[in-house]
Amino acid sequence: MQFKEGWNDAHKRFLEGKIIYDNWLDDYKDVLDKCKTKVLDLGCGLGNDTLYLTEREFCVVACDYSEVAIEKINREFKNVETKIIDISEHLPFEDNSFDLIIADLSLHYFDEATTKEIMKEIKRILTSNGYLIARVNSVEDTNHGAGQGKKLEENFYFVEGYNKRFFTEQDAIKFFSIIGETKVKKAEMLRWSKPKKALEILVQKNK
Questions:
Q1: Where are the alpha helices (DSSP H) in 126-196?
Q2: Distance from first CA to last CA of the chain, Å, rounded?
Q3: How far is it between the farthest Cα atoms of the chain?
Q4: Sign of torsion, CA 113 83 136 11?
Q5: For the whole model, what pTM was predicted?
Q6: Which CATH class is domain 4-205?
Q7: How far is residue 35's CA from residue 86's CA, in Å, rounded to a whole number?
Q8: What is the pLDDT along the chain (207 residues), one digit of tens a residue?
Q9: The sheet that has 150-153: what strands, in order across it?
Q10: C-alpha triplet 38, 133, 130: angle, nearest 5°
């Protein structure tokens, strides 16, 4: 993965701010309730979903590429395990480690070949019948770069200082079905000054 300095600088701008989450995971309460292992927050950023999960008494492993983000997590959460990892490389976990992985806006920064390898790694570390819940950029997300910048691959651009992939629903099924049975729905996020169009994805690992 690239752009570590950019990620660290981006997180520094919000380092002292209060962690605020939306309630998107409420829709997956039945899936969360099945989890018997720790939950992996893959690409945790400054801890939005980590906060949601810990408030509901889940044990969380929070991972991010940015040292600044992980420093924030370590300050804010005393009982959360943290790791600095590069999602585009081998994930540092044993096979069948997690019943549940959350990947919120962290899986859309990679070329096609790398994205496929990431899906294989996620499948490897999920338990049998485990779940991935994710949000990714939608091709409709023109407020945040869709169809803009330098085109690198189909729906994959260098824009706003990063490589960003924007998913159609068909793309999401193509990639995430590497893990297992995939369901996709459109979503809108209001975390920023302009609304963000995203796709929510629920995947259950197949054996």
A1: 169-176
A2: 29
A3: 43
A4: negative
A5: 0.94
A6: alpha beta
A7: 25
A8: 556 676 557 656 666 678 999 999 999 999 999 999 999 999 999 999 999 999 999 999 999 999 999 999 999 999 999 999 999 999 999 999 999 999 999 999 999 999 999 999 999 999 999 999 999 999 999 999 999 999 999 999 999 889 999 999 999 999 999 999 999 999 999 988 899 999 999 999 987
A9: 150-153, 156-159, 162-165
A10: 55
* C-alpha–C-alpha distance, residues 105 and 93, integer Å: 21
CB 169 within 8 A of CB 179: no
Whole-number Å distance between alpha carbons of 72 and 37: 24
The C-alpha angle 49, 55, 59, rounded to 5 degrees, equals 75
Q: Does residue 63 contact residue 42 with C-beta atoms inside 8 Å?
A: yes
Cα(32)–Cα(35) distance, rounded to whole angstroms? Answer: 5
CB atoms inside a 10 Å sphere around CB 188: 11
